[in-house]
Amino acid sequence: MLNSIVSSIDSFVWGPVMLVLLVGTGVFLTFRTGFRSWRNLGYALHSVLSKEARTKNRGTGDVSPFSALMTALAATIGTGNIVGVATAMFSGGPGALVWMWISACFGLTTKFSECMLSIKYREVNEQGEMSGGPMYTMKNGFKNKTAGRILGFLFALFAVIASFGIGNLSQANSISGSLKASFHVPLYVTGIIMTIFTLLIVVGGIKSISKISTVVVPSMAVFYVVAGLIVIIVNWRNVPAGLYQIFVMAFNPKAVGGGIIGTITVSVMNAMRYGVARGCFSNEAGLGSAAITASAATTDDCVRQGYINMTGTFFDTIIVCSITGIAIASSGVLGTVGADGKPLQGVDITIAAFESALGPVGKYLVSIGIILFAFSTILGWEYHGEKAFEYLVKNNRPAIMAYRIIFSLIVYVGCTQALDLVWNISDIMNALMAVPNLICLLVMSKEIKQEVDRFQPILEKEKKLRKKAKA
């Protein structure tokens, strides 16, 4: 009964209205800023990979620009990249991947905008740490201060709740499930170890979390991408057919066997809904969560760091999610039936895709990927939730330390309890966070354009200097 009610709420909040608000905001901002997020993507990627991004030489902040991005990516590259993509392709067909790409393209501008504004309106707390995020943008940036305070409070409240759902329970559950299935590790053992590790790291705050993220995130991403590419290369003969299904079924499912793949029947609306929903779950563009971490970056210009942080959407969806999606499509496992006579779903689809090319090793590689991705997500989301909680309790340090301890203990609950409702509840919390954040972006769209236009001559000058340096 409860599962049915939550499912109905999830379907409503991720219905046409939310899809239009999420993608529509990205489309509107992309056009309003003159497609600068797309045109300056090369500049942004170059900035991320530069040596300067790893230093704290330019401006003020808590961590380097690269560390801020990696901490944000720690929260975004998670089970959504492995389980979420498979779930979207099962529920919405292969075409869901195209809608993930489309939402990510416009999500670049959304991510840029929310991060840029959060840096512009961030504050320094009593401990000398940067505190920022959409709640501070609303509080400090809105002309109507009452509306700003109300929306800021709602965003922070939803972010705290979401930190226990999307950022904790569902991730911990994925880790313990993978370890039990692949390595026969008891749930309670995983729970104890994960709780201890989480507590040891999060007690140190953003600097401790960023140190771990800077090492773990690039390593785990490269590990998973290489493994996925091997699967695609082994199944290379099926890649053209897989890509054909992906693109055709995004817009015309009936063109491919009546829209049926094995046991799956899909529609364009389903492909769109699950593609956008899981894409947002994965890269978090529009939620405002990554903007909280971006605010910790050392930078001399909010637009510069906004461009750096927007690459998180590119790496997450265009790179990592694509690897999972193409591996699944080229392996031919979508719609197949398992030993129990039921269609393969979720992580089982991804495992079957990897096993099609790598044999039993594929199962272990996917399990390791889930463990690394999910644990980094827990760390990144702890920071998101903590900063939102800090906003609500007005920097009450004992309360914040209590949050860190409770958050770590919740990891044990996630590891040891069967949580069938977690995915739907996480989706609902995402939607609730997104609403005030997207309203904020639309209200402040004129300011976003002005900041982009202001920085463009600076950007062009830097590009010319780089060309001279190479010559």
UniProtKB/TrEMBL annotation:
Q: Does DNA damage count among this protein's keywords? A: no
User: Protein name, please?
Assistant: Sodium:alanine symporter family protein
Q: Where in the cell is it found?
A: Cell membrane
Listed InterPro entries: Na/Ala_symport
Give the source lineage, highest ranks first: Bacteria, Bacillati, Bacillota, Clostridia, Lachnospirales
Membrane-spanning parts: 12-31, 66-90, 96-113, 147-167, 187-206, 215-236, 242-268, 314-334, 364-381, 401-419, 425-444
In its keyword annotation, does this UniProt entry include Membrane?
yes
The similarity comment for this entry is: Belongs to the alanine or glycine:cation symporter (AGCS) (TC 2.A.25) family.
Q: Which GO terms describe its cellular component?
A: plasma membrane
GO MF, one example: amino acid:sodium symporter activity
- UniProt KW keywords: Cell membrane, Membrane, Symport, Transmembrane, Transmembrane helix, Transport
Q: How does it sit in the membrane?
A: Multi-pass membrane protein
